[in-house]
Amino acid sequence: MKKDTSFYWTLFLSTFTLSAFTFGGGYVIVPLMQKRFVAELKWIDEEEMLDLVAIAQSSPGPIAVNASIIIGYRMAGIRGALLSVIGTSLPPLIIITIVSYFYLAFRDNPIVNAVLFGMQAGVAAVIVNVVINMVKDITKNKLILPIVVMILSFIAAAFTSINIVVILFICGAIGAYTTHKETQKTKGGLK
Question: What is the pLDDT of residues 139-167, one digit of tens each?
Fold first, then answer.
């Protein structure tokens, strides 16, 4: 893939517009990134996008910024990561600056409050859509262990008092172990 000025401009504008027109937090931007970079631009395939999102979710910080850094780096190295993170971070910075300037005028406005309340339902629907699509992709590959880990993690987080950090460490250890085993199997098969 040729990385000329138009490529970098497309990368920056893609992350900028996704960030500018996404309301509701990082998980809302994930399906939009998937649509833009997988379906429209065809820069990455579906499976790689899922892997990149998994890495972004497990990294500290906002998922939208993490995902844009990882996608930008994957597409164009350090320059791509910088352009992507600037493109993702700039719209909220501009919007928050403007909103904070007019905050007192909007704070008690019932119409603004009603619109924001209505958007919460839309955000919840988008997040549910992301989860459903991820589950479909995992089940499509017929991988039993990730499905079992996902279900057990949900049960542990929702119905027990186990700290989420403990659940994450256990899931990370299982993932590291299975990746190590698969790598060993692949190396053994290549000899």
Answer: 777 778 888 898 899 899 999 999 999 99
Contacts of 134 by beta carbon, 8 Å cutoff, 6+ apart = 50, 53
* Dihedrals phi, psi of 163, to nearest 5 degrees: -65, 140
DSSP calls for 104-135: HHHTT-HHHHHHHHHHHHHHHHHHHHHHHHHH
Query: What is the arithmetic mean of pLDDT over 58-76?
Result: 90
Map out the domains of the chain as residue ranges. Answer: 5-107
Alpha-carbon span 20 to 17, nearest angstrom: 5
Q: Report phi then psi at 22, rounded to 5.
A: -110, 125
Give 139-148 contacts, CB < 8 A, sequence gap 24+: 141/47, 145/174, 145/178
pLDDT in tens, 8-32: 999 999 999 999 988 766 778 888 8
Distances (CA, A) of 6 to 3, 9, 41, 77: 8, 5, 13, 16
Residue among 110, 135, 127, 128 at smallest CA distance from 23: 127
CA dist 176 and 103 (Å) reads 46
